[in-house]
Design goal:
438 residues, alpha/beta, UDP-n-acetylglucosamine1-carboxyvinyl-transferase, Chain, 2 domains, four-stranded mixed beta sheet, binds shikimate-3-phosphate
């Protein structure tokens, strides 16, 4: 499927965003581990979270959708059934990695599998530490999916880990914390950077003793003696989806946009921090908190941007935002350098090379580096081309936004992948005044 995006007139108005993807995954899974009925409002209904729900159904978890809410009848980890078939995690690495940890902790036999794309994502990062905890598991050669969790022998238990993790990854950290719920002793994890901490915040709100030292990127979890309390919450809009609209409003002259109720967790707002340094006019109009998660209304106005250097701890706080950040950098005056971001090569596509290839064809002066890219910004974007999503939802949306600022229209192929995280994207763009056609 393809979509054509025409150079845009100003984007104006306000919108609310679908629920946060990371929080939706975690809330669904944790609700299944809790005892009692959980109600999660503004649950993201998209490809990746459907994969999580499908997998939970395969484990015997009873859930239903009522309008925008997910209701889960949690019965605790001991009531999860070993599924008869492999659990299909689709394209969702979060589903696979979080389930691997949770099901290891709950000692559920299963096979975790997914699409060809998912089978090429690195799983050694969870396989190795889970094995260290005593989880009997098998992975396909090269430590990739399918991953098989074999039942533990009677009388054996999991050992808690005290470990320095080699990559800052919320999926790895969360998988280990979830496994730690069923281990003996206190898990003590340190990361090289500040990965998103939604699992920690939700677990704390469900009654688990969990201590985070944000400065040291350290978290300790004590396995609970009593069942997890069910969840009752409304999820904030996904800042990572909002990022596409934020950059669109910044680069299309005359735009003025308000995003309502968007998540503002400090481990997720690296893009906002960097854009502000570049000169972006963005104001938080109101800020509140629910289940420990800050959220607020954000106003964004078209702005003159300046290029800069991005590296260090902010990289993980904006890890999903680099495709759209590159579009902002292309429109900024001067040079932008992204470094220490080699993790981008392990996402839904190799985001460094795919991004460089597609943006170059639109007219961006971008050079690939082993751990990032360099953009000479402020040149005109020619457009008038057909570009490809590489099966990557975030690349597809970033290229569409680039089309809004180009001189001629841009056709983006493979846009069906947008359904993985933000099915409403094209409709919202249209509502705000953009011309997007099939
Ligand atoms: C996610 C963590 C990040 C992110 C992904 C969602 C999560 O992945 O890129 O979109 O929900 O934990 P990594 O943990 O692999 O960095």
């Amino acid at each position: 499927m393809k979509l054509e995006v025409k150079p845009a007139s100003p984007l104006r108005g306000e919108c609310t965003l679908p629920g946060d993807k990371s929080l939706s995954h975690r809330a669904a899974l944790l609700a299944a581990l809790a005892e009692g009925e959980s109600r999660i409002e503004n649950f993201l209904q998209a490809g990746v979270t459907k994969a999580m729900l499908r997998a939970l159904g395969g484990l015997g978890v009873v859930w239903r959708l009522e309008g925008g809410s997910l209701i889960v009848e949690g019965e605790g980890p001991s009531r999860l059934h070993p599924p008869k078939q492999a659990l299909d995690c689709g394209n969702s690495a979060t589903t696979l990695r979080l389930l691997a940890g949770a099901l290891a902790g709950a000692n559920v036999r299963c096979v975790l599998d997914g699409s060809e794309g998912l089978r090429s994502r690195p799983m050694g990062r969870i396989v190795k530490p889970l094995r260290e905890m005593g989880v009997p598991l098998k992975a396909a050669p090269g430590d990739v999916a399918p991953i098989q969790l074999v039942a533990r022998r009677e009388g054996t238990s999991l050992r808690a880990l005290a470990i320095d993790l080699p990559v800052a990854s919320a999926q790895v950290k969360s998988a280990l914390l979830l496994a730690g719920l069923g281990a003996e002793g206190t898990m003590d994890l340190r990361e090289p950077g500040p990965s998103r901490d939604h699992t920690e915040r939700l677990l704390a709100s469900m009654g688990v003793e969990i201590v985070t030292e944000a400065q040291a990127h350290r978290v300790r979890l004590k396995p609970p003696d009593s069942p997890l309390r069910p969840l009752r919450l409304r999820l904030p809009g996904d800042i990572s989806s909002g990022a596409f609209l934020i950059v669109a409003a910044l680069i299309v002259p005359g735009s003025d946009l308000i995003l309502r109720d968007v998540g503002l967790n400090p481990t997720r707002v690296g893009l906002l921090d960097v854009l502000r340094k570049m000169g972006a006019r963005m104001d938080i109009l109101a800020q509140t908190e629910e289940h420990g998660e800050p959220k607020g209304d954000l106003r964004v106005r078209a702005s003159e941007l300046q290029g800069l250097q991005v590296d260090g701890p902010v990289v993980v706080r904006m890890i999903d935002e680099f495709p759209i950040f590159a579009v902002a950098a292309a429109m900024a005056e001067g040079q932008t350098v992204v470094a220490e971001a080699a993790e981008l090569r392990h996402k839904e596509s190799n985001r460094i090379s795919a991004l460089c290839r597609e943006l170059r064809s639109i007219g961006v002066a971008i050079e690939e580096m082993h751990d990032g890219f360099v953009i000479d910004g402020g040149r005109r974007l020619r457009g008038g081309v057909h570009v490809q999503s590489h099966g990557d939802h975030r690349l597809a949306m970033a290229l569409m936004v680039a089309g809004l600022a180009a001189e001629e229209s841009v056709v983006v192929g493979g846009v069906e992948t947008i359904e993985e995280s933000f099915p409403e994207f094209a409709d919202i763009l249209r509502q705000l005044g953009a011309e997007v056609t099939d």
